Amino acid sequence: MFILFTTFILFFTSACSNNEGTRELTPDNTATDVYISAASSLQNVLNDIKETFEEEHPNVNIIYNFGSSGALKQQISQGAPIDLYFSASSDLFHELVKENRISENHSSFIIGNELVLIQPKSSSSSFEDMEAVMSSDVRRIAIGTPEIVPAGQFAKEVLENLDLWVKVQDKLINAQNVRQVLTFVESGNADLGFVYKTDALQSDKVAIITTIDHTLHEPIIYPLGIIKESAEKSEVITVYHYLQSKEAQEIFERYGFNPVLN
């Protein structure tokens, strides 16, 4: 048990250090660290929001831990020292609410997204719709592992609703998160991939074939919540409210996210 717990702590520490570090501060200018576990699809926009927030709140240092929403949820369930969870899955988020890990009084739906089918811009094939997955020119389709990656779960729903899931099994390449799907397509290691529209818009190496009909999958909504143990920290409350502010929402919209009303 001790070995497993130590391994988990080392993994978690590494995950945080690989994303965002602590700012250099003088002894008289200390800042409180606020740890946020967030879906990989939020990486670019949240880094921009971090800069804006910390300019206005020099006493707070935001540290991100990006990954698939499923993997992050598991870390929090196991006691990872996180203050806020920003998920791409309402289902995973509500599991933590049921586990009494997230404060119901401090949880909100923040933004929405869309699912798209993409291909490398360098591809010689020309596709216009979901029929692309059945093309003989397509040998590899990248998809987030449905059990832990919400974008993969949404893609699976779409393929099932179109009676294509079984037909494309031999073509599927599982990815650990939606950003890895994007990388597979950008590099040409996958002919097609299912990602969020916001991810595709940030890459000049992929082309959007089609935006998936939203009726083919559950709504893509990102909930944000405070982990109960952190609900009394004023700095955490400040970050939580800032992510819902008009200023933050404008940045989200600039990256292609849709505003969501609770």
Give a verbal description of the structure.
- The protein has 262 residues and is an alpha/beta fold.
- Helices cover 35% and strands 24% of the residues.
- The protein has helices at 2-17, 43-56, 69-77, 90-98, 150-161, 178-186, 197-201, 234-242, 246-254, and strands spanning 32-39, 60-67, 84-86, 102-112, 115-120, 141-144, 172-175, 192-196, 206-211, 221-227, 258-259.
- The protein has a 6-stranded mixed β-sheet with strand order 2-1-3-10-4-11, with helices on both faces.
- Strand 1, helix 2 (43-56) and strand 2 form a beta-alpha-beta unit.
- The protein starts with a helix and ends with a strand.
- 41% of the residues are buried.
Output the keywords.
single chain; 262 residues; alpha/beta; 5-stranded mixed sheet; 24% strand; elongated
The separation of the N and C termini measures 41 Å
Strand order, main sheet: write it out: 2-1-3-10-4-11
Q: Considering DSSP H and I runs of 4 or more, what fraction of the residues is helical?
A: 25-40%
Strand content: 15-25%
Q: Which consecutive residue ranges, at least 5 long each, have pLDDT under 50?
A: 1-28
